[in-house]
Give the backbone structure.
Amino acid sequence: MTKKTLEKDSPAIAQEKLKHFKKLFPEAVSEGKVDVEALRRSLGENVASNDERYNLDWAGKTEAFKALQTPTIATLAPCPEESVDFEKTGNVFIEGENLEVLKVLQKAYYGKIKMIYIDPPYNTGSDSFIYPDRFQESKEEYLKRIEEKDEEGYLLKEGLFRKNSKENGHYHSNWLSMMYPRLFLSRNLLKDDGVIFVSIDDNEVHNLRLLMNEIFGEENFIASAVWQKRTSPDARLAISSGHEYILIYAKNINLIEESVNPLPLTPEQKAAYKNPDNDPRGPWVSTDFTAQIGHATPQQFYIIKAPSGKEYTPPQGTCWKNIESVYLRKLAEGRFWFGKDGSAFPRRKTYLSETEGRTVWTWWSNKEVGHTQEASKELKDLFDLGNMFDNPKPVRLIDRILQLATIKDSVILDFFSGSATTAAAVLKLNELDGGTRRFICVQLSEKTAEDSEAYKAGYKTIPEISKERIRRVIKGIKEDAKNNSNLFEKGKSDLDSGVKVFKLKNSNFKIWRGDVVDTAEDLEMQMDLLKDPVKPEAQEQNLLWELLLKSGYDLNAQIAEQKAGKCRFYSVAGGELAVILGKADEKCLQEIVRLKPRKVICLDNIFQANDQLKTNTTLQMKDARIEFRTI
């Protein structure tokens, strides 16, 4: 434990305030000073930047802030028919536009995600993605545009996507405008000890680094890993690119020990541990006991006498790693090795039993974490089809990230899910170590190319491939468990082999349209429409999930349908919340009060215009200290 000393000076109040301010607005602090314009932009003001100062700016940045701050009226609708073990599983797949989905998740998942991995568009000049290129359009126009579908009900690429050609004058700006709000919202979802990993290549790595410095804070940068994605160079090119980058940032760098784990030792590394002297602590390897002088103290310079009597001092430019008293204690414990004859240069023993793992470095070779050809083969073997994705990520790559940044019960988010490699990796790692990690994967309903193998096989959209991949991986895990009961260690029988599927939908509630109210008749029409706030086509389960999300309950909230007299209601989170969506009489309401949930939510129309019943219920809830809300 580090010894704490009494501070002689009074705290630097301004610096303390700046530190707390930066936790809330990291994007508004640059080079240790508050950027007032960035703060105003962050709070939704329209700010034009003219000052000469160090900051990242681009055409459309203000509009990117607006996109970030515009609230969503969307919700998530459950799809049990596309799921596996919907009622039991903690894994979630969401089909929908990821910016809107991230907004929907803010209340329920704020500060709950341990690790985020994304593989966004690389802005190569040929890819298409959503970006706000029509800055003058209203939210209604935007929503109408992204709802444009073909005759089969699939989103039209022209309505939602834009091909960001390199000939476009705002080529980099468009990409930054797409990324900024998504990264900003994702930071909100991370736990304090959470970490985000972002795959990227040379096209935008420089801009992404600056963007993440602004959003996450430059001090929270951990590393830029280089992944060797190929096994051989492309002979068609003068210089073939064989790598990509993975930028790694912490939510709070001060919690780095809780954020990043050492990697398990490889079989080859374990084999290096021997026990030639029958040490009771077990196998060990000898390690260097010298260190660079750096901040060495005089106590780190002394003579070490080997058992043979030979004396040693640290080589020039170095010192011993420990002061003499610590060395003598460790020597008495038998933690040093002087060779078989007791006369060799002193080396410290490092025991296998005391080794937590190995430190990862920034070079990730394809031998260790796989390559794109391996990833393509994984999909081909699973679907028995040809090339389904360009440059997919291998499971071993995501497995490396999971081992670095998660523990066995972590929640993992991937909001550019693609072929669902992250989901597959989470399921496989849980199978291997008995973990209870849960994934949330989000993928836009993007159409597959009509000339692709996937389209010809019946997969009209990318989410259809993603969901099917997850289902097939789950099926394989269940078959493994069935065919080989010895495969799993104790405690793995409850392995979560399921997925809940949700789809992004418009709200089930009618929305007040102040923009169409020009006359008294318009006002009266709007008020009549909102007498019953629920849309006629709304389904009860969809309505329930929307209320839960907007009340801060996550997508794994336990829901039980219960009866009270002749009426029924939903009990959520072990009775913490009661939701009433159907008819309810006085007996039903009194029974719910007797059960004493912390909160009760109901539709206003359950009282059927009986104001006395509503008033009495409100008073009874208040007396019972139950938070009561009507909609």
Q: What stands out?
A: Residues 212 and 563 are 51 Å apart (CA to CA). The longest helix spans residues 462-483. DSSP finds 21 helices and 26 strands in the chain.
